[in-house]
Amino acid sequence: MAVRVRDGRRTGRIDLLATILLVMSAAILMKLPEGAQHAVGHAFRSSVLQPFLAVNGAVTRYKARVGDYDRLRAQHDSLLTLVAARRTLAEENRQLRGLLSLPARRPARFAPVTVIRPGTTGTSSVFHLDGGTSDEILPFSAVVTETGLLGQVQDVRARSATAIDWSHPDFRASAMSADGVDHGLVEPLRGEYREQDLLVLRGTAYLSDLETGDEILTSGRGGALPRGILIGWVLDVAETSAGWSKSYYLQPAVDPAAVTYASVEIGSETKPAEAVADVPVVSDSATAVVVPR
Predict the structure, then answer these.
(1) How confident is the model at residue 202 (pLDDT cuts 50, 70, 90)?
(2) What pLDDT score was predicted for residue 282?
(3) Is 202 within a domain?
(4) What CA–CA distance (Å, rounded) separates 176 from 284?
(5) Range(s) of the domain holding residue 209
(6) Based on the domain organization, do 57 and 109 belong to the same domain?
(7) Which of 116, 138, 170, 180 is the most buried (most CB within 10 A)?
(8) pTM for the model
(9) Are 253 and 230 in contact (CB under 8 A)?
(10) Residues 120-138 pLDDT 10s
C-alpha cells in the first residue's frame, strides 16, 4: 500500500511539472514574433505532429470518398455542359482579340488539393492542403471550389501548405459587381455563432445601387486573386457614409465546413498582369461554377 501511495505522489508531481512546463512554453511562444511562431509551428508539424497530420489527412480522404460518387457525377455532367457551351464563346473571344490586335491570354492553371482541417481550438478558419511547392503552389494563391472562392494560401512547404478561408480575420479580397461597374474590398464579419458569419463589401461608391441577390466577384486588382471568381451575393446595405461610400452585407458562396476538395491557382508568379481575368464564372441566381481555362 505504501508503495502505491508513493507511486501516486510521484506521478502527480510529474503531471504537475509537465503542466507547468507546457504553460510556460505556451506563454513564451505567444510572446515570440509572428515569423518565429511560424518557424516553431512548421518545426512541430514536420516532426512531432507529422504522423498525426498524416493520419488525419488519410481519414479525411477516406470519409470523403465514401459518399462522393453521386456528387462528383453531377458535377462532371454540369462541367461537360459548361465546356460545350464555352467552345463558341472561346472562338468569339479569340476572333475579337485578333481584330483588336491583343495578345492571347495565358491560360490559368489549377492544382487539385484535399482540404484538411486541424480540428483544434482556435483553428476553425485555418486549414491544411496536401499540395505545396512541388505542385507549383505559391503563397497568396487563390483556393477555389466549384461554387466560388474558399480562401487564400498563406504558408507553403514542399508537399503541404496552410491556408485561411474567408472567415479568417486576415482575409481580404478586391471585389466587383458582376457587370464590373462597382468595386470595393471584401472582409469577414464574425457572427455570434460560426453559422452566422458573413462578408462585408466596403468602399463602393456612394451612388452604387447593388440589389439583393447581385453577384460579387473577385476583381483581380492587386494580382493576388484572379478576376471573376464568385465571392457571394448581396444581402442588404450595411452602412453608408454620406457623399462618400456605401457598404453591403454579403452571403458567402462557399461554406468552408463543407469543403473537402478544392483547387489552387498555380504559376501566378509568372503570370502577366493582364491574365488576372482568366477565370470565367458561369452562374445563375443559385450556383456558380469556376471553370479553369
Answers:
(1) very high
(2) 36
(3) yes
(4) 17
(5) 105-293
(6) no
(7) 116
(8) 0.62
(9) yes
(10) 656 689 999 998 999 899 9
